[in-house]
Amino acid sequence: MEQHLYEPIHEEFRALCREFMAREAVPHYASWEEQGIVDREVWRKAGAAGLLGMDVDEEYGGGGQRDFRFNAVLLEETVTSGCSGLGFGLHNDVVAPYLTDLTTPDQRKRWLPGFCSGDIVTAIAMSEPGAGSDLAGVRTSAVRDGSSYVLNGQKTFITNGDMADMVVVVAKTAADQGAHGVSLIAVERGTPGFTRGRRLEKVGQKANDTAELFFDDCRVPVDNLIGTENHGFYHLMGNLPRERLSIAVGAVAAAERLLAITLDYARSREAFGRPIGKFQHNRFLLAELDTEITIARTFLNHCVSEFNAGRLSVVDAAKAKWWTTELQNKVADRCVQLHGGYGYMLEYPVAKAWLNSRVQTIYGGTTEIMKEIIGRSLGL
Ligand SMILES: Cc1cc2nc3c(=O)[nH]c(=O)nc-3n(C[C@H](O)[C@H](O)[C@H](O)COP(=O)(O)OP(=O)(O)OC[C@H]3O[C@@H](n4cnc5c(N)ncnc54)[C@H](O)[C@@H]3O)c2cc1C
Questions:
Q1: Is 377 in the pocket of ligand 1 (CB under 6 A)?
Q2: For ligand 1, atom 12, which residue shows the shortest CA distance?
Q3: Which among 3, 210, 239 has a CA at the least distance from the CA of 100?
Q4: Is 243 an active-site residue?
Q5: What is the DSSP letter of 222?
Q6: Domains of the chain: residue spans and CATH
Q7: Which of 22, 104, 126, 176 maximizes the CB count within 10 A of its CB?
Q8: Cβ 204 vs Cβ 358: under 8 Å
């Protein structure tokens, strides 16, 4: 489908991303999947190539472009290259706004140059073994003691958790105040009392490390508070639409890639003396998927434009997130079927894409939570 979202400058950036992925990621990706984590070096190379912190101010080494289309282009190219699990999206799309918009000038000087160079890989730790969807129920505590916070608790499922040099931790600073007692506190690598647990073994997205984090009397300076004390929940709510938009960008790119791969296959694979795509059932199925992907792309492009204009609502971000990720899963499932037995073989990209798609309806807020948000907006 013709794209009306991007301008020539974004297409130039796309060419740079595509070349980077082909040179620095594709040749190593299988070994990263095997080890369950990417090599640190690819972060520094991405930083040097201008692929980290595109919307961070230039004075800190960023791209200085407050335009989410650059983020979208990079994400699309990681997906299209088959290397979707690098962790750049989490860093650029999810963590960046906390560091650019909620920090003090001193904090920006401390963290943003490393953020952009790839020397400071970031993560955000909300989920806990006992609290995922229900974020107000987090139990990790941060108790003020003089000029420090002392953190105790545990986080799980943290993307980039093992690689991260700095983690934005969601912690309770006022234990009895539910959502009104949550703060965001940066915890840096090497802080005594901060340890990492297992690198979790996942069904898909295998090159991207996902880890457990532990805080045991972990003392960090009060200067590591991000945003306002006890306003963490509001800071999260303010930034979750951007995270959901980013997941939707990945979902649509993945669905488009799956369809392209499967169309090639359906044209060349023969059964009963003709290409399998020529059977009416399959032709109609592919026509339906193509239609739905076109609709998804159209709504997504609208959401990216709305986000850039500062108008993307929480409800529209929720719609984009659940609908595109459910579509991605449907497309992946149908495309595996169209590949027959080969669709179940990991050497076929469609099989890996199917495994990688499954988590998309779970993280960043599950489909059910997205429908809760939309349902509430309907007064229900
Ligand atoms: C690969 C991966 C990477 C992740 N990365 C991160 C990360 O970087 N940082 C981070 O903080 N977290 C991360 N997560 C965690 C993720 O955000 C949570 O798993 C997710 O929010 C769901 O929480 P949960 O697993 O506790 O499930 P639960 O909240 O226990 O939900 C279980 C089921 O109940 C349903 N449910 C819950 N509440 C309702 C309700 N009100 N109505 C209807 N149904 C409901 C859910 O939809 C789900 O189907 C990651 C997870 C994975 C798998």
A1: no
A2: 127
A3: 239
A4: yes
A5: G
A6: 8-119 (1.10.540.10), 123-229 (2.40.110.10), 233-377 (1.20.140.10)
A7: 126
A8: yes
Burial of 221 (0-12, 13-18, 19+ CB in 10 A): middle
| Selected catalytic residue, list 77, 212, 243, 256 | 243
Report how far apart, in Å, the C-alpha atoms of 223 and of each of 100, 102, 228 are.
16, 13, 11
Q: Which amino acid is at 32?
A: W
Burial (0-12, 13-18, 19+ Cβ within 10 Å), 283? middle
C-beta of 124 in contact with ligand 1 (< 6 A) = yes
Average of per-residue pLDDT values in the chain: 97
Probe residue for ligand 1, chosen from 93, 362, 367 as the CB with the greatest number of ligand atoms within 8 Å: 362
Angle (CA) 305-307-308 rounded to 5° is: 65
**How far is residue 370's CA from residue 12's CA, in Å, rounded to a whole number?**
34
Residue-wise pLDDT tens digits, 316-374 = 999 999 999 999 999 999 999 999 999 999 999 999 999 999 999 999 999 999 999 99
Specify the 3-state DSSP secondary structure of 306. Answer: helix
| d(C-alpha 288, C-alpha 190), whole Å | 52
| Residue 125 CB less than 6 A away from ligand 1 | yes
Distance 367 CA to ligand 1 centre (A): 10
- pTM value is 0.98
| HEC profile of 229-248 | CCEHHHHHHHHHHHHHHHHH
CB distance 368 to ligand 1 below 6 Å = yes
Q: Is the CB of 357 under 6 A from ligand 1?
A: no
2 falls in which pLDDT band (50, 70, 90)? Answer: low
HSE (side-chain half, CA atoms, 13 Å) at 229: 11
Atom of ligand 1 nearest to the CA of 362: 20
If you take atom 32 of ligand 1, which residue's CA is the nearest one?
Answer: 133
Residues 229-245 have a mean pLDDT of 97
- Point out the ligand 1 atom lying closest to the alpha carbon of residue 366: 47
Q: Is the pLDDT confidence value at 1 over 70?
A: no
Report angle CA 130, 206, 31 to the nearest 5 degrees: 145
